[in-house]
Amino acid sequence: MAEREGRRRLLRLVQEGRLELLRAELSPEDVPEARSWRWGRLGDTLVHHAARLGHRHVLEFLVRELGMDVEAANADYKRPLHEAASMGHGDCVSFLLESGAGVDCLKKGDWTPLMMACTRSNLQVIRSLVEHGANPLLRNKDGWNCFHIASREGHPEVLRYLLDVSPGIWDTESTIRRTPLHTAGVGATGKREWPELLNPPFPPV
């Protein structure tokens, strides 16, 4: 019981970003075991938690000093980079990429970190992923690429950027033959805004 409570306290310190207390309480003999500690239904590591909550200083400690794996996957195959990208934590995204995280790693459903970043209007994170080699044209299990996702979410600045780096990205269909224009029609952007946002000659819906 004491050991379990001790682990829970360490997890709380990671979640709260309290690095000095974490450093003081995570004893050297705990380190080899701590690399494989898992929490929750999906089995998230300490690195997952730090990335999700945007604590870069804790991430650096876990990875550089304790040797924890930036590519650790939970039960949904989600890596820490998916967590940081989906929550818009640019500093954590940059650190994970610099530390060797695979930029196009796939979680369940074949979602990349770039796809997850496109669910938010955080151009810094999206740009960082693309500049590190993320492929905007990859599709998930439903046939959606990141342009479909940005269209659904209604982020004009993200759409413009994706068109700049991949001009043909709009010309695609999902597995049920839904185009990004269809997706925008039922999402936040709306069809009427598309002519003002985008130059390509979209086919009629």
Secondary structure topology:
Blueprint: H1 2-16, H2 19-25, H3 31-34, H4 46-53, H5 56-65, H6 80-87, H7 90-98, H8 113-117, H9 123-131, H10 146-153, H11 156-165, H12 180-186, H13 194-197
Helix pairs in contact: 1-4, 4-5, 4-6, 6-7, 7-9, 9-11, 10-11, 10-12
List the keywords.
51% helix; single chain; disordered C terminus; 205 residues; 13 helices; mainly alpha; Serine Threonine Protein Phosphatase 5, Tetratricopeptide repeat
Give an account of the 3D structure.
This protein has 205 residues and is mostly helical. The chain has 13 helices and no strands. It has a domain of 102 residues: Ankyrin repeat-containing domain (Serine Threonine Protein Phosphatase 5, Tetratricopeptide repeat).
| CATH architecture label name of the domain at 1-102 | Alpha Horseshoe
Characterize the quaternary organization of these chains.
Answer: single chain
Q: How many beta strands in the DSSP annotation?
A: 0
Mean pLDDT: 88
Derived from helix and strand composition plus strand pairing, the structural class reads mainly alpha
Rg (CA only) = 19 Å
Query: Can you summarize the main beta sheet?
Result: none
Element pattern in H and E: HHHHHHHHHHHHH
Looking at the structure, the CATH topology of the domain at 1-102 is: Serine Threonine Protein Phosphatase 5, Tetratricopeptide repeat
Uncertain segments: 186-192, 201-205
Distance between the termini: 61 Å
State the CATH class of the domain at 1-102: Mainly Alpha
Beta content comes to under 5%
Query: Helical amount among residues, as a percent range?
Result: 40-55%
Count of runs of 4 or more consecutive helical residues: 13
Shape descriptor reads elongated
How would you name the CATH homologous superfamily of the domain at 1-102? Answer: Ankyrin repeat-containing domain
